[in-house]
# Entry
Amino acid sequence: MLEEILRQKPHWLNHRGSHGRTMLWEAVYHGKIGSMQYLLDKGAEIEAPGCHFSEHLVEISPLCLAIYKVDTAAQEILLRYGAKYDIYSAAFLGDASSFRQKLEENPEVLDRIHPMAWTEEKTALIFYAVAGGNHEILQLMGERGVRIKPDSHWLLKFAYWKEDFTLMELLVKYGADPKALIISDPLEEEVYTRLRALGFEIDINRPDKMGWPPIVYASRGDNGEHPEEIQKLLDAGADIEAVNAKGKTALHTAAKAGFAKVIKVLLENGADLESRDLQEETPLFSAFRSSIRKKDKLVECMNLLISEGADLQAKNKKGRTAKEVLLARKDSAELLEKLDRINEQL
# Structure
């Protein structure tokens, strides 16, 4: 099959797909030894790096990837075809001995800008040490005066994503600015104390770039239902009535998503059943407008909101009531048959 693909599209041999990944890189990632051998025989670029961002954060070479995945067969083939083990691989893999040796041989690489294949963004050697979570190598670089402050945000964010608070401490020790990263996730109190001591700002209600406060974002349908995460956010001080750019609270988004468990947590913690968004619509409107496929989940949420006293006669900005929005649905008859108490109020 691979032979036929390259026969029809020979330029795909070294084509960079998602995150710069070539066919060879993908073959290494998935442990396809036969495909690796075939691609190398065809002249595939052996050093072409790639990345699965959430897993690696930085681009790594096929050889580095094979070592990372402990695939000795892939390593042997790549080395046989001339793959090079560079300082970036040593930094990512935590190979302190090789890293020291290579840095001694080429000290200017410490702060050299390192371009990436799949984006216009630039990186540097220190990103590889942080992405790999390697304290010893970071310390070694810090002692040599590596440039950190200009890249404080992403370096600290990499360490934070890895939940490596010791790495964050080391970055701050060697020059990272803690003000470059605001923490807005629910963490254990001792972690908050540790981060505050380093100078980090904790703001559990800070909206992201799209205007989503953490508690509202965590209640969205595309994130899955996680009532325990909502409770952690509330325990950490999240504002239960925080709103996104459309004025919607967590209760609005949970109602739209059909998340009955999240709705229960929010109501148990005092969420306003009649909170209004910018269109003056309550969470009940959000449930009535929801287009989720699982109607049973939607009915459960509608029943829950109504049983708690949600007002069917509440009017939105256009003067339409929640009841009218429900009755305008094409499937309103089906939903009405399943709703427990709504018929009493119609």
In short: Residues 214-345 form a domain with the Serine Threonine Protein Phosphatase 5, Tetratricopeptide repeat fold (CATH 1.25.40.20). The first strand starts at residue 113 and ends at 115. The radius of gyration is 27 Å.
